[in-house]
Amino acid sequence: MQNLLKTRFDLTPDSKIVVVGEGITGASVARFLEKLSLPFSIVDSRKTPFTFDTFKNATHLIVSPGVALTEPTISAALNLGSKLVSDIDLFAAVVTAPIVAITGANGKSTVTTMLGDMAKACGKNVGVGGNLGKPALDLLETATELYVLELSSFQLERSHVLNTVAATVLNISTDHLDRHDDLENYAQVKQVIFSGDGVMVLNIDDAMVLAMHDPTRKTFTFSIKQKADFYLAHDNLMHGENVLMSLTDLPLEGKHNAANALAALALGSAIGLDTELCVKALQKFKALHHRMEKVSSKNGINWINDSKATNIGACIAALEGYDEKVILIVGGDGKGADMNELAPVIFEKAKAVILTGKDAPLIETALNLLPEIVPAYHAQDMREVIAIADYVGKIGDTVLLSPACASLDQYKNYQDRGEQFAREIEALPA
Hints:
single chain; 430 residues; alpha/beta; Rossmann fold; UDP-N-acetylmuramoyl-L-alanine:D-glutamate ligase; six-stranded mixed β-sheet; 33% helix; 19% strand
């Protein structure tokens, strides 16, 4: 491995490596470097603020995804010649089994897990992780036959040697513009996942994804709106003219999960998995925690936890998956997104809205521009959110927590937000 890293990145025992960030990714990098006897230091601005001396004389910086490359001292070090290497670079340089990579504004965790389940159903020894679960470097094992990685835009923007047997960008929508400036730059970063020469899997319902098509590459397409290699027709998941399964046999809420299933099937086909076994794996699939997860039917209301919907696109996808109007819980830290994009879909798909969190006023302002009023309520915390939802909701209604925003303004993370949602529902009087 040391020879590979020397060839690819000029990493040697004489290198001065600085690992930036002591979180999950940084810890995985530290373990990897220790195994190879490569010396390094590890720093974290949450403990000690970065200064110019922090990176003085560093030959290589391995910057965790949660740390912006525009941080002044990091940017200065890179401008002075420090080489940027990511954990995904290290992984891609030494891995011996094929890699499938999945990104997108929404659905990537679901598709990654689906494909991992499919591969296991086909008897593969598969490692699943990346931005989901285990960091990539912690997955490295000699017995692994296939790696399925979820990759975020923050991981892709600092990756330079990734080459996959198959990869997909599921969709592009407004997210992380506080880090990526604009939607076009965000899309360019996502497109890095196609840097290699493997099969491209493209969502032809998304114009920005379709524009990534390379006619020289083998490509599979998927769609829930039109005919493609893998598509939805008459509530059936199709491949060509073949019915793979009925949508009613997919145990997940929302039609956007049909798109996720089609993407996973396309990726499975691209790497030669048995389609029949893949379909059986989908029929047994369970929703991920905090992603369109039905948590209760208390008081005759369907309570759906989609706390992982931390951007506008995820919320829109969740709303468009319903034929009937829902009671929507929305708000938090909008990360600089334009809430005017969300308002028309709320108008079409929500019978009432409960606003909460830091950017609730921005959402309310967007709603006030609509031609007709959507009843909106304000809540200070999750207890008040659930009390209002229970008061407004009638038997048979769906209450959907799909915040379209990050959670850190009020909660530890999106998981904490979803767990508080479930706890407050449980605490409601029958």
